[in-house]
């Protein structure tokens, strides 16, 4: 084990501040000051923390009794300065940092004691057993180091406490241990296979929150998610400007939260942590607050206007529709046109609502499907919605591998999808389209079209303007044919026409 030596940083008046580093010497600077009569020493043990952001460092104050005037009983009384006190001699008004990751500083203590389990073995802050090996602690049957928990006693009050020394005391060596307390936590649980399962943790500095005139006084409080602009918002701004985020589970939506497993004590709006601190012993009481969360399947949205849907594109989302939606001037999300839709679109009251004036522009080279929805896949649901006066513009589609499926409403609809009471009308536009021969392009959709009423779908072909009264097509417009089932066929090849567009039907 490495020895600790002390390097004198400064000596002003009767106080010497020393820095302990891992090194070896024949005689330390402290030894020299002891020979000069500095026989009282106070060692500040960071106790797993770090002075100056450096591990393995201790601070030592040294005092010479002859520098003090004894009282009538022959005793001198020395008042200590906390290491972080900016009035400390030699500090130059700068604070000495003492920190420990994910812990707050409770105070300085003269005594510390390992926290042990019923077997007499040391444990960490969560009660997990540790075993000692060569002065360090490890988790059993592991090379992973652990950090033991301590309780403390003999709290040093720098305002009131003094070192009371008389000549017969001789050399005095006092050690003060930094008392560290882990941040207080909220642990969030959800039910998985009938068991409450931890899925998230948030924490805060209890001491900072409860300090006089604290700027973070409300950061011991969690805030429940709330609906905002069509989506569930999981973020709350504290008075300090810091943000709190309620933990979110993928593909779920917050429903409610409780402070008990039986879900009888429901949280409304917010909840303040119930933990306290025994400052005399540096011990947290009820440090961990459990929150039991009920979640709804799917990431859900409540849509009252078109902008809310546009701003929350999610091909796995569950969209509850409350009104007719007008998409004039808005861009239909690529998350829908370019992906397999596995979510749900349904109306809040079961009544039919209309999506009108949609404009979807499709520009892809790496997707084998496309439409207002790229695909409507297994498990997806679309109910009681009309798509009217929609434009689906395949402006550039250059997929050259076989098996591609494209359509106005969807490239393909799975038989395991649920599509009910859906009406579709509008314009299908074909621009720079180049596909392999084995493709399926339908005026409506490929796959299952059950539950869809096809209204008037106009087919328009257009070429790229070459600015010489010529328009370049990637297929022969005159070869385009739509059969009775809505399947579109065409012959590919670059052709120049003087006609900007062709209306097929």
Which helices and strands occur, and which strands form pairs?
Elements: E1 4-12, E2 15-22, H1 29-35, E3 40-45, E4 50-51, E5 58-63, E6 75-78, E7 98-99, E8 103-114, E9 131-133, E10 136-138, E11 150-155, E12 163-166, E13 172-182, E14 184-192, E15 195-204, H2 206-209, E16 221-223, E17 226-228, E18 231-233, E19 235-237, E20 243-245, E21 252-258, E22 270-272, E23 276-278, E24 283-285, E25 288-297, E26 300-303, H3 306-310, E27 318-321, E28 325-326, H4 334-337, E29 340-341, E30 344-347, E31 353-356, E32 359-364, E33 369-370, E34 375-376, E35 381-397, E36 404-407, E37 410-413, E38 418-433, E39 439-442, E40 445-447, E41 452-462, E42 464-465, E43 471-475, E44 481-482, E45 487-489, E46 492-497, E47 501-503
Structural features, described:
The chain is elongated, with a radius of gyration of 36 Å. The strands form 14 sheets. Strands 26, 27, 28, 30, 31, 32, 35, 38, 41 and 47 form a ten-stranded mixed sheet that branches. Strands 1-2-5-3-13-8-11 form a seven-stranded mixed sheet. Helix content is about 5%, strand content about 50%. It has about 500 residues and is mainly beta. It contains four helices and 47 strands. The N terminus is likely disordered.
Explain briefly what this protein structure is.
This protein is mainly beta and 505 residues long. The longest helix is centred in the N-terminal third of the chain and has 7 residues, at 29-35. The protein is elongated, with a radius of gyration of 36 Å.
